[in-house]
Structure formats: C-alpha cells, structure tokens
Amino acid sequence: MLDLRPNCECCDRDLPPESMDAYICSFECTFCAGCRARLPGERCPNCGGELVRRPIRPAAKLAANPPSALRVVKPQGCAAVD
C-alpha cells in the first residue's frame, strides 16, 4: 500500500492525500508538480525513476488506511537539481 507521504521532498509543500499535484517514483519519493517540472527530465533526483501522478485514495478508505505522517525533506531542497 502506498505511504501517501504528506509533503514534497524538495520544497516541503503540504501534499494531502487528495492532492492532484503529488508525484511519486517507484520508491514513493514524493514531489509537488512545481518541483517535478524543475527536475532534469522530470525524473526522481534520488533514483532517476519516472515521476508519475500519485493516485488518490478514496476518502472512505483513509480512516482504515491513513496516509503517512512522516515528512521527508531534502536538506538542500531543489537547489541541487535546479
């Protein structure tokens, strides 16, 4: 099951479970649409994988399957890939 991480790794923007602006790679690294657009080839800076829009978990399923509360943030932000 997807973690549904709560934020962008680059800019720390909140990305709630219903966000249409969340993108993930196969390792679930999570980025907002704005940071994704600035990444070379729109690829994950951690693994080089494709970043695709994160699916929306139905609201009725969130209570039994809550999103992650663990925030992952790159200390250098997106500056290293701009």
Question: What key phrases describe this protein's structure?
Answer:
single chain; 82 residues; little secondary structure; Herpes Virus-1; 2 helices; 12% helix
Overview of this protein structure:
The chain has 82 residues and is largely without helices or strands. The protein has one domain (1-82): Herpes Virus-1, CATH 3.30.40. It is 12% helix and 10% strand. It has 2 helices and 3 strands; from the N terminus they run ββαβα. A hairpin with a 5-residue loop joins strand 1 (22-24) and strand 2. The protein is globular. The termini are far apart.
Distance between the termini: 31 Å
Order of helices and strands: EEHEH
The CATH class designation is: Alpha Beta
Which percent range describes the beta-strand content? 5-15%
Tally of DSSP helical segments? 2
Cα shape: globular
Domain tally: 1
Q: Could you say which structural class the secondary elements and strand pairing correspond to?
A: little secondary structure
The total beta strand count reads 3
Instruction: Give the radius of gyration.
Output: 12 Å
CATH fold naming: Herpes Virus-1
CATH architectural type: 2-Layer Sandwich
Give the biggest beta sheet.
3 strands, antiparallel
- Average pLDDT, rounded to a whole number, is 93
Low-pLDDT stretches? none
Helical percent range?
A: 10-25%
Spatial strand arrangement across the major sheet = 2-1-3
InterPro entries: DUF1272
Pfam families: DUF1272
Protein name: DUF1272 domain-containing protein
